[in-house]
Amino acid sequence: MSLHSPTARLTPVDTVETPPCGPIPDCLAPDLPAMIAVKESAHFPNQNADGASIPPESMHPTPAKSAYACGPAPDSPGSATTGRWPQSRSAPAVPLVSVLMLAYNHEEHIEKSIQSILDQQTSFPFELLIGEDCSKDRTREIAARFARDFPDRVRLITSETNVGMHANGRRLEEAFRGQYVAYCEGDDYWHATDKLERQIRFLEEHPEHVMVHSDYRMHFVDTDRITGRVLGPKAGLRDSDAYNELLFGRRIVGTLTACLRANALRQVLASAPECYDPRFLMGDTQRWFEIARLGRIHYMPEVLATRRILAESATRSCNPARVLRFTRSAKDVLDHYAAKYPADPAAVRCARLRSIRAVLQRAYVAYDIATADAMVAEARSLGLSIGTQARLEWLGTKHRWTRPVVKPALALLRLYTRVRRRASILISQPTGA
Question: How far apart are CA 235 and CA 224, in angstroms?
């Protein structure tokens, strides 16, 4: 199938075949913030309207060592490994893929992020749209330089005032031109130079699929340590049951790995106001739930991208109250989608239990007694057993004098959980060379 063929109109899935569900405790391992795979350096102000688009200057790019590393060479049409796609300064090719990049205070990381997109080896043209939201550092200056040097592939969209995360993402999603959309935020990067080629090839060959995502690794910036992989093989995922798997926590979508059909995204954005709802501090999770209603979602076990973990972020912060606030918002999203569409009752039960446990964990760290009591009361009203770890966290939050006992008990329990999870992964892996 040609990589330039048009995609079919999408309609919601009428019925979803649900596989037998395992016991609820098996689905409690993923932490809610990790499941949501939120952006590490997200900021939350949502004042002002969408900013005006500032087009990049028109000038010839300065030759660079890595320039035009994406696509087939004129003497090798269609080759994704040896050349680059034909380009014209006067009439740039219409992109098949649009890569959207949110950028805010990413001065230390954005150059590598942008370059990792330009280094993609593809057999088709693509564009990179950078939404720069009035950073307080040199992020805009760096992004503008790439827009000047690569006017046929990089577009900078910004404004004179900060518009906030939701509005910044919205103006990118209103400006892209491709038939497919991928995401990479300003402090992440794609280390696999064939990421786009693999994912677009799959979507072109499988018209019943609306999205594909992959495994990824994490780069802890403070220690410069890079993990091998985050998700693993994920055996047993069913492309036709992505909605329930998202509720269960079995399917985790890293935004930096997602690639989807543009008509599916437009259909979701036009019909689901949750995607831009300022009540929710994240925007990607809503999209994945809505898109899962339109068709199949495929998981690639290959590690294709790297997510940077910063010392201060939405889910990793020195401010426990800030992390708790975000986790409560994540719970609101999960609870919303547990009720919005028909789903497996076991998946709904699991989603509510996981979200309660995640908030309890953050309330324990933040010493928020009111929140901890509210979560326990909600679990009781739903007839849910929160488990040993959550009970210990509730006890340690409600009575501070119990902390000297609760803290080591929790440490031992988490160690046991990690060992059991690791043993399960090793047992499930095939033996031999």
Answer: 30
